[in-house]
Amino acid sequence: MAGVEGPLTNGVSRTNGALNGNGDLHDPIPQESPIAFDPSLFRSYLLSLLPPIFGASPEELESIFDDDFHERVSRFAGEGGGVIYVVKKKDEQESEDTPPTYTYKLTPTLTYDPSHVTTLAIIKRGPLLDSTSPLATQLHILNLFGSDETPYESLHAVISCAMKPYFEAFVGARGGGKDGDSKMGIPVTKKKFAELELSLLHLQQNVEIPETHLIIHPVIQRAVEQARQNGQRPGISDLPPKLLSDSTFLNTLQNHVNQWIKSIQTVTKLNRDVSSGTASQEINFWLSMERALEGIDAQLRSDEVTMVMECLRNAKRFHATVSFLADTGLKDTMDTVHKYNQLMKDFPLNELLSATDLEKIQEAVVLIFGHINRKLKLSPYPIRRALPLVEAISRDFNDQLLRVLTSHRLLYTPYDTFERLLSQTMAIFRTWDDHMKEFTNIAREVTRKRGEKFIPIKVVPAHAKLQDRIRYLRDWRKQHEQLAVMTAPTKGLGGVGNEIGGMDMEAEVKEAYEVMKRIDVLDVSMEGGEIWVAAENAYNERVARVENQIIARLRDRLGTARNANEMFRVFSKFNALFVRPKIRGAIQEYQTQLIDSVKEDIKRLHEKFKTQYRSSEAYHMSQMRDLPPISGAIIWARQIDRQLQTYMKRVEDVLGKGWELYAEGQKLQSESSAFRKKLDVRPVYDAWLHDIARRDMGVGGRLFEIVRLRGGGYQLAVNFDPQIITLFKEVRNLLWQNFQVPHAITNMAKDAKRVYPHAVSLMETVRTYGQTLDLVENNKGIEWLVAEYRNEAQRMVTKGMNIRWDYFVNQYDTARYSDKTNNVIDLYKDILRSVEELSTCPYTPEAFRELLGKIQAAIDRLNLEGYANLDHWVAELDQRIQGILLQRVTHVIQLFCSEFERADDHDSRREILSRRDKRAKNDKSADGTLALTPIVHEIRIQNQVIFLDPPIEHARAVWIHQLHDWLGTVCRLKRIQSSRYEIGLQMQGHTVTNLTYTSLLTKFPDTTLEKPFALIEQKVQSLKDYVAKWLQFQSLWDLEAEYVFNRLGDSLALWQQLLTEIKKARSTFDTSETQKSFGVCVIDYEQVQARVNAKYDAWQRDILSRFGVKLGNAMKEMHASILKARNDLEHHSIEGLVGAPRRF
After folding, report:
1. Any signal peptide, and if so, which residues (predicted)?
2. How far is Cα 8 from Cα 30, in angstroms, rounded to an integer?
3. Which residues does 34 contact at the CB level (< 8 Å), separation at least 6?
4. What is the pLDDT of residues 140-180, one digit of tens each?
5. Calpha distance 311→577 (Å, rounded)
6. CA–CA dist 235, 307 (Å, integer)
7. CB 829, CB 782: distance < 8 Å
8. How far apart, in Å, are the Cα atoms of 713 and each of 46, 331, 720, 954?
9. Beta bridge partners of 936
10. Hey, which residues does 122 pair with through a beta bridge?
């Protein structure tokens, strides 16, 4: 467990326990104290590592392990440092013959010195070193080479050969799409690596401009420093006077000046061969030269140099001072370098050298040449140097293209990606060539302007071989892809029979391609060219066997073709393979058959031409498409000529170029040439020109003319020659056919073209005007609405009668009359349709409002469009609508009356209902659906009072209300108005009072409106009479029996009369019915019937019983009277009666 506890105690132990608010652990777990790193382990590691790297023995390395070794290692192993360096330093030698000796030291800080031979950087991978783990897993080792003038080469090697490839390998292994890489910043990192690599390469390639330090005499130096300390301007007065005349001092100063001249001349006369290095070296050379010259110039302006020159001039030594600047050549060189650097400054070469894809390379080429072509006109940079500079840029361009294309492994990519990359590359080459042409022209122009010695403006591009190889590779891959597609299982020659003679063509093509994938296809060196040729030969050997199989299949298909069209169909299907010479040679056997078929096709063209243009279908089609006759004939002949060329091209596509050299081909060529001569349209065109020149055509005369009709009368017509229209169309189409029409005819056509739109418009307008007049004549109802537009059109015609075509500028448009007429006719028809529907629509407010809304919307549109006499026209339309609505109201009143007068019995009611249903089916207006709902009145008794609920007056109110509703369906409708958009009426406060059709009620010619009210009153009176009978029974409760008895007295006749009347009165309520119907009203007496009957029975019983008593008493009295009379008679003596004579 010791190996586990070590790291925990050094670095991870702080994870045990929880932090409190102050960042300290609380409740820690007891643990051992940290184990310190053992420097002896590091010593042993260095003794094993350094001898092979430094080439030194362990004894020589003992200088590393000094007294401070343990302290430095402990600090490095702890959290203090992340890197420590081991430096191998070369000791100074007294003589060159003695062998070199070296010193080794261990240091935490890094310095650079030319004596440092090797520097080894030891970098920690973690924050702490663990004694229990191998140091090899905890340390990075990096060898920083030394002993060079500059470390640029070593750093460039580290970046380009180690760090950048390692990063790209990691990114490639991790995978991820382009979008994911962009989000993580990987492309930016790649670009930074490329820029760093490029910067180090530039630093490595730069021509070092020697630094010039002018030697200053110590006396002069001290004098200048003293003057500066005193805040004075240095001068010769600061020197001792005797020193100014000291020849030794002056000679020393003069020697210093001569040395200055030599050292400055070393820089000013420095030059480089632009063709020997890279473009960046040339650019950096001039930029560094300018910086060096500016440094020299700054030194020459210093107080020390000025004091030296003053001393020499004071001593009359002018030969050293006068020609100083001329001898150095500094001014001229600075001027030249400054002008050259107009081209070199901001030179966008880095955009090319740091480009990571083809798009960036193309953009860089555009930027570079744009900079060169623009700055070359301003900078006097010699053309003889500019040409090698462009060649150097071409080398960089070639290298960058190779770097980008090689990274894609072209032959391993899918064909779509391959084609896209190479198309992009060829586009980059075309961009280079286009800008190269522009550069060449500018170079010639600049050479001529500067008067420089003539040199051939020629640039040998370093990428020419690469361009040829890419072009060849692209064609080769295209041919291979065509072959691979045709041999695939689902294409062309694939499927059944793919394996012929025991060979799988698809596999054979793939194996042939594998041969090419093994080589570097972009290697254009001599050795690379030989490898390419050998690989291509191996590829061709395998592909040749596949071609033989394809030829066999192709011959089979051509042999089974029934006609030339099928042959051509086979050729078109396998046309992609005909670029291969072997396959192309195999199909030449069929040239005779194809030539014969083409002869037949040409013969049919002869027959088509013999029918002549005017007898062909094309002539009729040309008339439909408004093509004039001459142009149509020329287009027709050219179509035949193009078809003939198509036949010739088809033969050439199949048989190859040079087919006309064969005997049959020569004959076919001669026949086609003779036919093409007949198809020459030039004679037709010349004949047309002669005919036009012979005629006297032009645009003139008045606009209108009056033509007499054969049947009598006159007609307005446009005075325009139709031949002018034909001329204009002919010239237009002939110009489209690239004929050179003479200037005079063109001008005539231009005049016709200028007038033609107006003439055609006038012709159409005049024709439309005549048709519009006929329309108005046939639609008299709209004549007032369009009267103003008709007057306007007539004014236009009157104005145009005096205008000639020569001065025709404005277009006189009478089409407005026609447009307005057509519009108003459509609206008028819609309005009439809606008006007619008013007489048949359902008798509902919604139906009437919808139709009147449509009519009102049409009237509003007429108002907005400004039609004249609209008020009068709307008034007439309103009268028509009012008549229709009056008929509907009359019909509704009649319907109300018939409903009101319907019979009371059920049979008659059923007959009326069936008649109404039949009428509703036949009447589309649906007036039959209107019906009066019968009102039920109930005769009730409450608190011994008989009354009618609701009262009869309610029935009258309901019937009148229903009548008003039926009439209000029409009478409440809003009238149509013509002035809804007239704001003037609203502003004046004027309101139209008659806004509805209520006034229809005053338009009835007879007593139609009075009849329903009379029927209502009759029905009310009938109800009153019937209800009065029931109300009489109220007396049954109101009368006192004694009052009745006293009223009757003892008169039996009165009693008998009362009983008779009571018997008759029972017929009113003593029935099986419970209600009485009056048609539109029903009297329900069910509630009161039983009570009246019971009360009646009680009264009848009382009266009968009292009548019985009265009758009994009367009978008793009569009986008594009779009995008394009898007794009286019996008591009379008969004697008195006997004596009297009897008379019989």
Report:
1. none
2. 13
3. 9, 10, 13
4. 888 876 655 567 777 878 888 888 888 888 887 776 555 55
5. 91
6. 6
7. no
8. 129, 104, 21, 76
9. 1082
10. 84, 141
Give the whole-angstrom CA distance, residue 88 versus residue 53: 10
CA angle 175, 180, 181 (to 5 degrees): 70
Q: Residues near 262 by Cβ (< 8 Å), separated by ≥ 6?
A: none
110, containing H or E segment: none
Residue 1001: CB atoms within 10 A of its CB come to 14
Q: In this structure, what token pair is assigned to residue 234? A: 């240095």
- Residue of 134, 40, 53, 41 lying closest to 86 (CA atoms): 53
Consecutive H or E run containing 4 = helix 2-7
Contact 391, 383 (CB under 8 A): no
**Contacting residues for 981 by C-beta, under 8 A, at least 6 apart:** 860, 863, 864
Q: How confident is the model at residue 817 (pLDDT cuts 50, 70, 90)?
A: low
The single residue listed with the structure tokens 């592909």 is: 543
Query: 3-class secondary structure for 726-789?
Result: HHHHHHHHHHHCCCCCCHHHHHHHHHHHHHHHHHHHHHHHHHHHHHHHHHHHHCHHHCCCCHHH
In sequence order, the 6+-apart residues with CB closer than 8 A to the CB of 870 are 785, 859, 862, 863, 978
C-alpha span between 1047 and 383 (Å, rounded): 160
Residue 808 dihedral angles phi and psi, to the nearest 5°: -75, 120
Tokens of residue 813, six digits:
């448009």
Contact assessment for residue 532 and residue 521, using Cβ atoms and an 8 Å cutoff: yes
Cα dihedral sign, 1109-1114-1117-1120? negative
- Using omega within 30 degrees of 0 as the cis cutoff, is the peptide bond preceding 950 cis? yes
Is residue 582 within 8 A of residue 547, CB to CB? The reply is yes
d(CA 323, CA 472) in angstroms, rounded, equals 63
C-alpha distances out from residue 400 to 215, 418, 472, 856, Å = 46, 18, 20, 81
Token pair of 438 as six digits: 């522009």
Q: Could you report how far apart the first and last alpha carbons of the chain are, in Å?
A: 184
Alpha carbons 282 and 272: distance in angstroms, whole number: 8
Q: Position 288: which residue type?
A: S
Q: Which two tokens stand for residue 173?
A: 């292994």
Q: What is the pLDDT of residues 984-998, one digit of tens each?
A: 444 444 444 567 888
Residue ranges of the alpha helices (H) in 131-272?
152-158, 164-174, 178-184, 186-205, 218-229, 241-244, 247-268
**Cα-to-chain-centroid distance, residue 728:** 42
pLDDT reading at 107 higher than 90: no
Q: Rounded CA gap, 695 and 689, in Å?
A: 10
pLDDT digits (tens, 9 = 90+) for 724-744: 777 777 787 778 777 877 777
**Beta-strand pair 1081-1084/935-942:** parallel
Residue pair 978/874 in contact (Cβ under 8 Å)? The answer is yes
DSSP-derived letter for residue 1009 is: T
* Contact call for residues 253 and 217 (beta carbons, < 8 A): yes
**How many other CB atoms sit within 10 Å of the CB of residue 869?**
14
Which residues, listed in sequence order, are joined to residue 939 by a DSSP beta bridge?
Answer: 948
Residue appearing with tokens 């030594």: 317
Could you give the 3-state DSSP secondary structure of residue 948?
strand
pLDDT confidence band for 981 (50 / 70 / 90): low
DSSP secondary-structure letter at 12?
A: I
User: In 13-67, at which residue ranges do the beta strands (DSSP E only) sit?
Assistant: 18-19, 25-26
Sign (positive/negative) of CA torsion 724, 729, 732, 735? negative
DSSP secondary structure string for all residues of 338-349: HHHHHHHTT-TH
Which residue pairs from 721-728 have beta carbons closer than 8 angstroms and sit at least 24 positions apart in sequence? 721/697, 723/695, 723/697, 724/697, 724/698, 724/699, 724/752, 724/755, 724/756, 725/752, 725/756, 725/759, 725/760, 726/628, 727/692, 727/697, 727/752, 728/752, 728/753, 728/756
In the chain, the amino acid numbered 901 is E
Long-range contacts of 312-315 (CB under 8 A, 24+ apart): 312/250, 312/253, 312/254, 312/257, 314/236, 314/244, 315/244, 315/245, 315/250
Give the separation between CA 477 and CA 104, rounded to whole angstroms.
Answer: 60
Rounded to the nearest angstrom, the gap between the alpha carbon of residue 677 and the centroid of all alpha carbons in its chain is 52
pLDDT reported for residue 701: 66
Within its chain, how far is the Cα of 574 from the centroid? 40
